[in-house]
């Protein structure tokens, strides 16, 4: 499926040299997954150009492109970022695809297991990425790994179950991976039925096309430390691609979105009091213990 | 999770008596699935009311509600149908959820297997719904069933693999379905990891909220004979609910959408020539064999 | 067009008493505009219910509804807020409608001037809302009003031009507001053409339906002091309605969204240094003068 | 604002020669409007490629690209068409912009009259496009033109009112079109206020980016004979551009969408009876007079 593209063309369209260099080239993610850029539209300049349509003659002031992009992202003027578009070809485990697809403002064409056989490929984590349920966060895994013995047993189970289920997927259809009939006396069941026997770490693939504004939102949520490790790997690779594609936007995104901190109404009032020299405690702050803890963490204040 | 709701309230909102009767009540779909309506907004009258805002004083002519709704759907004036909204609670196998979620203009809250344990419930088809790959349609199952012996073997495999995978899902987390630790020396892996060992016929559930226009589109696609049987079952149940909720819209939908036929430019010219008494053949029609076959089928002309 | 609704019904749906009290009742905005709620779905509890589907058995901890809603909004878990829906009937000047419609995730049925005559109603600002272009902000008006004499002249022009254009709108169609033919020898031009002669302060009206998540976003942007005064008036009225409808969400919105402050990566590092007792200046902060000014303003630090 | 782009670049992206030829080049629409393509992504081949991801190994059969595109559009498999994207720069009268913006699945950056002065340009129809209200269709203009004398009077009014309103727009801001202060004793009102005095035929402009699937939908609705003439002019120009860009899609669109006919359930049964030699009349058809008339028109049967 990987269409190598060596041909080059002449275009008058905005062209991004650094992105051209990696066009079509797959970046490996996890054990069998990948991301590759298969097309794109626009660059940092297209954002500036769209903003300038809005501002018309009124923009002499913010005349430098980098400053303008910074300004747009700082003030959440997001529509100019919708003027850039990118298309990826992604291979990913189904349980990750199910998280990914929740981002609705995007276009998707997924490999259909009603039409075609899925390949014998499933995600088996590396030993170092296995860990127990987090005690503090209901949705996350903890930092602590498993004992070697337990980790090996886990990988064995994952490997065995996925392998058996895949083999039975073929058996149910009465055909080999190459499409040979196994037992001439059987008819096999249809692909759309047999696929239900596969495990959720089975790989699938899709074309995914999205505008830059929505892509930044995806990256923000999915590269967050609380996102599942596996989708973080994809999100981080996408962030690297964004850096090549639209470097000014990348910088502004890190500064004003990814690494920014939002303080609540009460949070900002606490900070003001602290700056004025007040001693503020959780009890009289009006914040819950949890919120207070989050604020102290953001301010890197160690109350130990 | 099924919140029985016996309380009643007084409201000035448009209220649909027939829908109130089945509110919160689950309709069983497949072996462990269900659909139930948990809230709704508007009725046939709300569509008429929205259309009348658009038409203002100009609508005296199409003054009867039923006629107006018919007119709107016939001419694809779809925005008034967006003025009605409905919320479902649905339990469904994951491989069906993956088809369903492709309808993007809807709101979804799905049970999260990062937060909570999934129940030991997976879809096992009835024997009569097992069938082989269709020879003529690359994406469908055929009409023909399997031999009894083969069908039994198929069900056995599906049952065994799902059961084993579910048991190992628990083992991987080192806990029982009730949350008891299995082996005190193990830590188990996090829920977000363990779930990858489940099979695609595992049941999940979600709240799904959508406007009537987009719901009709869903029903049109997913109740189509070429849709997968399992999602058809849900779509047909939804269509029954639509009939209770907005009976005029239901009728117009059957007449102008579900059972309508679209003829291509060439198709309509063929029909005109036939009506004028011409003998038309595929060869000189300008249509491909496949298109011609589809046209003859639509016109119920047997060329045998 | 204002359909008084005195009838009441019995429903098992979640019902919000405080919203029922004002259902259908128009709130006046500007000189001839209004907003009224014509239908709604869900309440604070529906948000909690949707969140609990996601969290399943995993939510015992955040068991209090108010705390959960607070948590959801603080951490931008926005999908449960999409489970509530509201429908408004709004009358507003066309130049404001053009700003409003940029919020795309909503359903709209607007009065059509192709079908029907528009009424002789246009927005004329109050004298105290007239002011000159802001010197500091390219998109805003300033705080300073006009001289009485100039203000009167402005209102005179607005009144005269709108009146003449409206009268000529009728003349172009060769009919009076009541639909009488003016000159039997003329045919008049079609409504779809004549409307182009109207001024942008002409009132229009529409039904507008939106989910709570997107509504909060609308209110955040359009009640902002930098938004145009006229749309602020509508946004503030909607915020009052939200307070009646979903009081927990309202409170969380004020605390974590409307009155929150986002500090950039550099901004938060400056705050940390200040809290540690450092003297930080704009020059060595790495921030532009403009960003520095915005930060000092957020922290209410007067740098003399 | 028209950025002439003479530079060319080397790219590995799919490139459409025929579209490159007209890139950035404005096509005049109406008296002062235009459309020009400023960027694009993909071509016919990108649609095929996306479809092939879905069909995987299962597509050998429909191997020819043109046939596949035809098949996709015939069976309303629309997602592959979302894989192409195009960006236009459009200048258009405000009353047309208001129709246009109702297509929500698109990205827009409009010239902001809060930031900048609008130019002295408004749409004045050609005499031959002036006509009276249609007697049969509540939303359309008729075929019949106006008397020369009336037409001249109409154009005079439109010209006068737009000119006066524009001049007063400047007067209200107390500045000339070039930004010179008119009366040093006045402060003028802000741009965001003054614009309300403009007429709806005032020109605005925007960048508009949309995927091919949604663009085809736009063209279908807006090039329809019942659409307003002025927006038809834009839609037809866009259709010409589509023909250059994706010629296979263009052909399939004409055949299966624009010039197709949808027959209702009853309509198709009438056709079947007619083909079987029955005489069918409106009375016993079960169709309303209006629907029957529409059917006879589609079949070009003259019942006179």
From TrEMBL, chains A, B, C, D:
Its EC number is 2.1.1.148. It catalyses: dUMP + (6R)-5,10-methylene-5,6,7,8-tetrahydrofolate + NADPH + H(+) = dTMP + (6S)-5,6,7,8-tetrahydrofolate + NADP(+). Pathway: Pyrimidine metabolism; dTTP biosynthesis. GO terms for molecular function: flavin adenine dinucleotide binding; NADPH binding; thymidylate synthase (FAD) activity; thymidylate synthase activity. DUMP binds at residues 99-102, 110-114, 195, 222. Gene3D superfamilies: 3.30.1360.170. The keyword Metal-binding does not apply. InterPro entries: Thymidylate_synthase_ThyX, Thymidylate_synthase_ThyX_sf. The keyword Flavoprotein applies. NCBIfam families: thyX. Belongs to the thymidylate synthase ThyX family. Catalyzes the reductive methylation of 2'-deoxyuridine-5'-monophosphate (dUMP) to 2'-deoxythymidine-5'-monophosphate (dTMP) while utilizing 5,10-methylenetetrahydrofolate (mTHF) as the methyl donor, and NADPH and FADH(2) as the reductant. Homotetramer. This is Flavin-dependent thymidylate synthase.
């Amino acid at each position: 499926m990987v269409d190598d593209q060596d041909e080059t063309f002449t275009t008058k369209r905005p062209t991004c040299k650094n992105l051209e260099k990696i066009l079509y080239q797959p970046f490996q993610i996890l054990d069998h997954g990948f991301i590759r850029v298969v097309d794109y539209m626009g660059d940092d300049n297209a954002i500036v150009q769209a903003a300038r349509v809005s501002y018309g003659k009124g923009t002499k002031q913010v005349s430098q492109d980098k400053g303008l992009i910074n300004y747009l992202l700082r003030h959440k003027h997001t529509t100019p970022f919708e003027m850039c578009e990118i298309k990826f070809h992604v291979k990913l485990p189904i349980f990750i695809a199910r998280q990914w697809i929740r981002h609705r403002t995007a276009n998707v064409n997924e490999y259909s297991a009603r039409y075609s056989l899925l390949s014998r490929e499933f995600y088996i984590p590396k030993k170092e990425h296995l860990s127990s349920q987090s005690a503090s966060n209901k949705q996350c895994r903890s930092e602590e790994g498993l004992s070697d013995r337990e980790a090996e047993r886990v990988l064995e189970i994952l490997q065995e179950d996925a392998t058996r289920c895949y083999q039975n997927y073929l058996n149910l259809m009465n055909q080999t991976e190459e499409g040979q009939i196994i037992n001439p006396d059987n008819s096999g069941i249809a692909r759309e039925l047999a696929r239900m026997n596969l495990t959720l770490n089975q790989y699938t693939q899709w074309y995914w096309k999205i505008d830059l504004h929505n892509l930044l939102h995806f990256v923000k949520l999915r590269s967050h430390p609380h996102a599942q490790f596996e989708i973080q790997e994809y999100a981080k690779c996408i962030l690297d691609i964004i850096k090549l594609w639209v470097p000014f936007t990348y910088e502004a995104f890190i500064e004003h979105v990814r690494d920014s901190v939002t303080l609540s109404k009460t949070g900002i009032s606490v900070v003001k009091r602290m700056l004025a020299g007040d001693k503020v405690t959780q009890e009289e702050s009006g914040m819950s213990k949890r919120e207070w803890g989050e604020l102290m963490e953001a301010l890197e204040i160690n109350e130990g």
